Amino acid sequence: MKKFILGIFLISSFFSLAFAQISDGKFEDDVPVSLSGIWEGKDRFVMFENPDKDNPDGGSAVDGEGLNNDGTAAFSYKAPDYLTIYLKAFYGWYLDRTAEPDTFDSSSRDRNNTTVKSPEYVYSFYRPVIASSGSNSVWELFVHYPRKKEPFVIPLAVINDSIYLKFFIKIPTEDIKLTGGAREPESKNISGDKNITGDGTQSDPLLGFWCGIGQTTGIKVSEPKTTENIDSIYVTENAVYHIRYWLCDMEYSDEKAFFSDGGKTYSVIKHIQSAGKVYTCVSGRSVTIRNVEKTLERPANLTVSNDGFTCGIGEPYLRRVAQKGTESEILSIVKKANSRRSPRQKPPFEPLNLDWHIKEIYEIEKNDTLIQAARKRQKEFADTYLKVNFQ
To answer: Least buried of 80, 190, 273, 299, by fewest C-beta within 10 Å?
Structure first.
């Protein structure tokens, strides 16, 4: 089995963080507290829960230990957890029980043109990337989809009861100054000495290098797509540098890459490993970044975690609606949602109080033999065909 290790693990050996720590990469035995419960997004409900924790097999779709290329154990696990995914169909007016555990009550499943007889069974495992003392954390979600041999890895960040699939992780770097053509470290702080206050906190949490990690399109019933490009940013007091990492077939390394602006050179990581794929910001063995875009305005719609180590991009993918996920809780949401009825649509045109002058029309038609003959045929048709077929 392929070994999935996020690149952040490999660069953690020489960085120390005050409020967050890099995980040892071991899988969780149960659903993490920060992920447990029921989550709602624009087009789905997702529940992370294992309804059969007492069963050592747990309906596992995969048994045994994964092996690295050298034959050593990559990870071991017990029973997998189920992913419950209910899709919002018909513009959100109907919840389809698309994927759920096999222990759920099947007799309560609807049978209509939207549903299928049996749901999909999707299993998941959880490996922490960043363990935080607060309500923020970063995880790798290993999802075993039906008829797939290898798990699909979804990196995700939890920030204040919201899940982000597109997010940054702050990576401590060294600002470099050029001295006689050689690079010398200027500061080893996350973004320079000027950004550290007397109590050890950062005066501006956005300053520094933000490494793009999560770029998966969603937590879905089938394998989602991953992007071929990952954007990272380096924020200084006067500018923002946008660095593009593209999908490559290189082996991951913990090398650094550099870019310059004026008399200062900045260092970033050369490779990013996300969702089991490797991305690079330079070609081949080069360490000089040439595709840097500089802007003066900072990115909008960013959500920085309380510990200042994770940053969500845009709107959250999911928001927590229940702290504890149970079968009865999620099915009650389905029952309540599917009992709703869509309100009548407003007519495209407002009704008008028109005067059709019916009396005047009758006076005009009553002496016209052609019109009277047509009216007679209409009446005969209504008395025969319409009464027989539509009563």
So the answer is: 299
Q: What is the rounded distance in angstroms from the CA atom of residue 86 to the CA atom of residue 97?
A: 5
Q: Which residue has the tokens 């000027």?
A: 194
Cα→Cα distances 50→32, 58, 317, 327, Å: 11, 8, 22, 10
Structure tokens at 324: 């504890």
């520094």: which residue's tokens? 208
pTM of the predicted structure, to 2 decimals: 0.73
User: Would you mind telling me the total number of residues written for the chain in this entry?
Assistant: 391
* pLDDT tens digits, one per residue of 343-359: 888 888 888 888 888 88
pLDDT at 87: 95
pLDDT digits (tens, 9 = 90+) for 349-388: 888 888 888 888 888 888 888 998 998 998 888 888 766 6
Extended strands (E) in 216-261: 229-235, 240-248, 256-261
| DSSP β-bridge partners for residue 311 | 168, 304
Q: What is d(CA 242, CA 210) in angstroms, rounded to the nearest whole number?
A: 10
123's tokens: 């299993």
Q: Which two tokens stand for residue 317?
A: 């993918």
Looking at the DSSP bridge assignments, the partners of residue 94 are 89
Tokens of 70: 């050298």
C-alpha distance from residue 304 to each of 216, 314, 360 (Å): 19, 11, 74
For the chain, report the end-to-end CA distance as a whole number of angstroms: 68
